[in-house]
Specification:
7-stranded antiparallel beta sheet, 237 residues, Jelly Rolls, 21 strands
Length: 237
Amino acid sequence: MEKVIFKSTDRGTADYGWLKPNYYFSFAQYHNPSKVHFGMLRVLNDDYIMGGGKFPTHPHDNMEIVTIPLTGAVEHKDNTGGHGIIQSGDIQIMSAGSGIQHSEANASETEPLTLFQIWLFPKIKNIQPRYDQRTFDVANRLNTWQIVVSPREEDDALWINQDARFALANVEAGKQLEYKNGFTGNGVFLVVINGSVEIDGTILNKRDALGISKTDLFNITANENAELLAIEVPMGF
């Protein structure tokens, strides 16, 4: 097993007033040559957006973009006619493909919004842009992995244009959870959303992350109640 730790305190930060992001990888004005991407995972931003905050309409192409609200609700609009409001428990995916323009806004004028925005390089370039969202039952991720994004029909998840999987789990203190790759040879970027866990002797606390590669199986022990996100991606680039 090969591991690369991303401590929450080492992330890039910015303050735009309405937006306070934390960057796991180089983004915008933050550049760290040792943290540009993890395999096909290019962006993971942990955003705090004030009430009324909005990303104005802007373009993307050839990127798979996943949005995971943690608290509050986000409103999405794009030029394909895609429009939706997603909140905690929901997952949104957008294949930018050959080109798309969209906006994202805090659906509330008064309450803050926190979310993960995640970008992956696509498997096939210049596909027709697409948008999808789904509500998942949070109760179905207690001490087990709930797959929420995958290209495989049998995973019953939102489709992605990449051999990648996103899975969420809520693990009770003292419990152990195994992660087994869906695609042989992939790496896993594991984020501790809340709580504390241990993996192969490495302790991770709230918002810490660990890039794991060169293994298709590993175990996680929860030191306290923990909420986890596993982003499994091809490591070739």
